[in-house]
Specification:
The protein contains 13 helices and nine strands. By secondary structure, the chain is mainly α. The chain has three domains: 177 residues; 121 residues, no CATH class; 71 residues, no CATH class. β8 and β9 form a beta hairpin.
């Protein structure tokens, strides 16, 4: 059995959206002036498609943990593309500020903010230090409400060099005709750039500042990033959650749930990437897109077929509402017996998110009735093997 035998329309949706990403450059219609950022943005979409294509290949080969490793890289790529395509703010964090120096820092920031042409939008303190939000780069016309704004991350990701070898090894690495001090400085700058702008927490902070992860989306991203890290890192639990703990395990055998999960990730990330590319194209300077109504229709139908995933959009399912009704609020102890709230009446933004995407996917395929509360979940895609997994 292959992955395409057992998942209804999901493989077809994954393939169509992936082909749209792979052909993104061919959908661009340039106006009288060609803007290089549009070309670069389309190229990043194609590069993401290359990751997602690898996920499908590994999925078909039943190498599910490896497929999920690549999914994490694809998710990181997509989150960075949200900033590169759409951000008009970036955050600079200053650590190690002494408490006695805080008043001077605040006075200096207020003075700079009041100055002519200041790019400081706002700032705040927390336990990690001082965070200063700066505006992006504008053309002269856009400062008056017209023209273009180019994301500061567009330049930062282009300038960042991940291949310096590291400062502590600079003296041991071959770099002909470079001074040791210059090698160390370049490596130190690259490391500082990574910590300042590209680690996961800083990317999420920038996405929140730019309002590019609305509502529960930030929680969703954190959950899925953590889940996928269980496969990217040498975690025994990562293999066990897919193949079980028995010996010999089921490595190399078909698994409906791991296979479906990989397909859902491909659909979700590809659809989200196409969405942000279209949002970018509607901003000044505008970019024409050929036959984009067809692409949008394909995105809608793919999201409808994969809506039970509830990641980067969508709505919670009946299963999630029941799980929320069974979850005690705040610091309360679990309550046995009939729940205090009807799951159907819980507002979508009050429904608790799930912790383990694979475990939830298995449970979505099995109808159940909780003995204490009496709440019944009727699976719309019942599978008998879900109870024994």
């Amino acid at each position: 059995m292959t992955s395409t035998d057992d998942h209804g329309t999901l493989p077809g949706h994954a393939e169509r959206l992936l082909q749209r990403l792979e052909g993104l450059e061919g959908l661009i219609v340039h106006g009288n002036t060609q803007h290089m950022q549009h070309v670069h943005h389309a190229r990043r979409g194609v590069q993401l498609a290359d990751h997602l294509r690898a996920v499908l290949i590994l999925n078909e080969a039943r190498r599910y943990p490896s497929a999920l490793v690549v999914v994490r890289s694809a998710l990181e790529h997509h989150l960075m593309d949200r900033l590169i395509f759409l951000a008009n703010r970036h955050v600079e964090t200053y650590t190690g500020v002494k408490k006695a120096d805080v008043p001077k820092w605040e006075a200096d920031i207020r003075a700079a903010q009041a100055g002519t042409g200041s790019d400081i939008a706002r700032w705040w303190w927390d336990e990690k230090g001082l965070h200063v939000v700066r505006r992006g780069y504008h053309s002269a016309r856009s400062m008056k409400g017209r023209g273009q704004t180019i994301s500061p991350y567009y330049f930062r990701v282009g300038d960042f060099d991940p291949f310096t070898g590291g400062k502590k090894h600079a003296a041991r690495l071959a770099r002909p005709f470079w001074k040791k001090a210059d090698r160390e400085e370049w490596a130190a700058e690259a490391a500082a750039e990574w910590r300042q702008f590209f680690v996961h927490d800083k990317v999420l902070m920038a996405l929140r500042v730019n309002r590019l992860l609305p509502g529960v989306s930030a929680v969703q991203v954190d959950v899925h990033y953590g889940f996928l890290s269980g496969f990217a890192h040498p975690s025994q639990r990562g293999y066990e959650t897919v193949y079980g703990r028995s010996h010999p395990d089921r490595m190399g055998s078909f698994d409906h749930y791991a296979s479906e999960l990989a397909l859902l990730y491909v659909i979700t990330i590809a659809a989200a990437e196409l969405d942000i590319f279209a949002r970018m194209a509607r901003r000044a300077p505008r970019l024409g897109l050929s036959r984009w109504a067809d692409v949008e229709a394909e995105i809608r139908t793919a999201r409808l077929a994969s809506s039970h995933f509830w990641f980067l959009g969508g709505e919670p399912t009946v299963f999630d509402r029941i799980e929320t009704a069974h979850t005690p609020p705040g610091q309360s102890e679990p309550k046995w017996g009939r729940p205090r709230v009807d799951p159907a009446t819980i507002r979508p933004d009050r429904v608790r998110y799930y912790a383990d995407p694979l475990e939830r996917l298995v449970r979505l395929h099995a109808s159940s009735q909780e003995l204490s509360s009496g709440l019944v979940y009727q699976s719309p895609f019942e599978r008998p093997d879900a109870r024994n997994r």
